Amino acid sequence: MARFGLLPVCAIVLCVLAQLSAQANDDNTFAVFRQKRYYFSDSFKLNWFKAMEYCRTRGMFLLSVRNPQEREAVIEYLGSTGYTKTHKGLWAWMSANDLGEEGEFYWSTTGERVTYPNWSETEPNDFKIDDCTNEDCAILEYWSEGGANYNYTFNDRSCMREFHFICETLLD
């Protein structure tokens, strides 16, 4: 008898888990974005690889901005730090890169392809810096005098350059 009473409970649990999974994959669930915790390295800079490592050693991930709602949450967070009030520009590493295949950008923290079209005009351009260095990692950039083209948009840069970076995680 106890065995048959457990079946309806299991069915309910599975239905709830399926609904939660569907909600987690819905990029328009703004409440989830508000629950993220961010870390901004406003006092030091690292290259992309070291920034990835820094975030992971603290149980976080390098930033992924997959839609306008996530972008707005990041802008709100950065505004709360006061950094953009005291600095004219911001260049910060995100997890997007095309290290695996040139021109195919993916978020390294989620494995998803970058589909949110938030690139600055003419970017990504894979600018060749020297015979061995191209631009394969993405930054979030803001420049107060740059207009819409530099209003928290994406740009590809050499992964070895040092920039500030933003880590993120979901709250517990």
Automatic annotation (TrEMBL):
Gene Ontology MF annotations: carbohydrate binding
Keywords, ordered alphabetically: Lectin, Signal
Signal peptide positions (record): 1-22
Pfam families: Lectin_C (PF00059)
Coiled coil: none
Keyword Signal: yes
Domain (C-type lectin): residue spans on this chain: 33-168
InterPro entries for this protein: C-type_lectin-like (IPR001304), C-type_lectin-like/link_sf (IPR016186), CTDL_fold (IPR016187), DC-SIGN_domain-containing (IPR051004)
UniProt protein name: C-type lectin, mannose-binding protein
Native source species: Anopheles darlingi (Mosquito)
